[in-house]
Amino acid sequence: MSDFVKVSRDGDVAVVTIDNPPVNALSFHVREPLMQALVELRDDASVAAIVIACAGRTFVAGADITEFGKPMQQPELRAIVATLETIAKPTVAAIHGTALGGGLELALGCHFRVADAGAKLGLPEVKLGLLPGGGGTVRLPRLVGAVKALKMIVSGAPIGATEAHAAGLVDAVFEGDLTTHAVNFAGEIARKGGPFTPVRDRNDGLKQTDLAAFDAGAADLARKARGLEAPIACAQSVRNAVTLPFDAALAAERALFVKLVASDQSRAQRHLFFAEREAAKLPGKDVVKRRIARVGVIGAGTMGGGIAMAFANGGYSVILLETSHEALQRGLATIDRNYSVSVTRGSLSEDAKRERLAQFKGSTDYADLADCDLIVEAVFEDMAVKKEVFGKLEAVAKPGAILATNTSYLDINEIAASTSRPQDVLGLHFFSPANVMKLLEIVRAEKTAPDALATSVDLARRIGKVAVVVGVCHGFVGNRMLAARGSESEALLLEGATPSQIDQVFTDFGWPMGPFQMGDLAGLDIGWRNRKARGQKAVIADTLCEQGRFGQKTGRGFYLYEAGARTPVPDPEVEALIRDKAAENGIAPRAISAEEIVERTLYPLINEGAKILEEGIAARASDIDVVWVNGYGFPIGKGGPMFWVGLEGPARIIERLEYWHQRTGKDVFKPARLLKRMAETGSWEAGG
Fold first, then answer.
1. Peptide bond before 604: cis, by omega within 30 degrees of 0?
2. pLDDT at 532
3. For residues 452 and 286, is the Cβ–Cβ distance under 8 A?
4. How many Å apart are CA 250 and CA 582, to the nearest integer?
5. Catalytic residue among 125, 276, 322, 441
6. Known catalytic residue: 615?
7. Of 32, 105, 381, 495, which one is the catalytic site residue?
8. 40 flagged as catalytic
9. Residues in domain 3-hydroxyacyl-CoA dehydrogenase NAD binding (predicted)?
10. Which residue spans within 40-155 are E strands per DSSP?
11. Residues of the chain with confidence (pLDDT) below 50
């Protein structure tokens, strides 16, 4: 048929094989010959059954999303699925690897689905701000029921072959050569005779639907969506599958898809999809990566323990080093408890927990790090302490071992210069909790070797992290911009805003929580210690810390946390403190609008991002978006701070920055040159 779709025969069973590496996406050059093959086989009386399979490592893993937003070339997926449903002879999808998005919708067009034991099936379009546009929301409920379909589609998470079989999505699961099994399955079904009922005409999964329970589940999902449109549309489309005739539900799905694909939110989420992949690309494709088999982590506290778990979860042997036996045992016990929580929640089995714990070796002797290929230092955020650690590593680490620091702010060039092997030194800035948070800022120092950098980017992927390579400056990308975002927080309080008002503006914007609630969660003493080290002060926050109010861990911070609760309660004492400090500084409180809060917090954040791009600390504006969405909770529906500039309007941002710069004289409001250029050209690339 073509280079991308081939047809072979095994007796009277035709096998249609899609071969479009790397993931067999349903691009136009696949759809056209696939449609032609299906029509010819449908009309060929010598063919008793048809198997759709894929070459390579996976079944169709989705549509070609580069085609989204462009005129669709025919035939599109919906037409192919409709053609499949006109075939009277049995059709079987043979699923290995992953059947995702359009791949699963193609399989739903077949009468039967078989899978190998390791296959995963899902409809992840919601993660791109979309819903399944090829009939997935209407066909899937007919097989697995509306409630199960709702969970799968709104979460976007794939399920395994065994679960899919139990749910009725897959008809058989096989070990061994899947295509052979699929051909035998199809031949046997054909010999038994039909009629063979397409999924569109099956209603078993819909008969038992409790709409009240469904609506309650959908309402709960809507609350968790935090302003995202796609999850709500997905829920509505699945409900339509229950309440409307098939063709009407299909038409409604298409209308919702067309609306979503043109929306700012979907554009933002598709931007992030490509941004994450771009962030992992480095110049120099021929760089040979170093071998990483054993990892050392220095420090068994909150960060060190979480980092050690991240590597163990990725399958690496870990040596966890502490200065004392007591601290080491405390750290290992915390790791044990964390895994036990996962077992309790059902996300980890007892056997898997034992396997993970077996990967750890505790030590108080630096000599035990001699065989490590990567050593991550996660000790106190103090330059002298870190240099002392690297001095000890110099004596024991083998040649070629990567030496990484988990610093959040400190100058990695200075740390590297204190060693005789600066080419092996870089930053691996994990985010807490390190075993959960996806972001990893990989900090490239001045003399970091290309192979050390490439190895770290590859390693990040292996342990399930989203890696972004950044340069050296105070706070790198994320924390430097965070400082700019928070630079006016105290001024806003003193001028009349309350912590809860500012936090509400942030959550209304789409953040999971506001800056004061986040500060209480992280611990106010962390920022206090950092400010003291830099000779800086924060009138309100420092006073709270001097009173022992460090946030949730002390039950008091900017908010009260009653009886160990995590829910923040506004504290009259804090509001009185703010008024007293305002009076001491001669500031008369006034009404502060939500618009002003956005302008004085998020606009400086954008401005600092533009300066970071100017300085080459970040390679791409999209890299900054990846940092902020994955590490700091910037709303994914707005695409990250630099993408959001295009939605908000750069001219407005510049005008308001200039207004506040003139009013306050603060450099944080002085518009960056690159921001002005972006306003003129509409592209961050204009800066070169």
1. no
2. 84
3. no
4. 60
5. 125
6. no
7. 105
8. no
9. 295-471
10. 49-54, 91-95, 98-100, 112-116, 120-122
11. 686-688
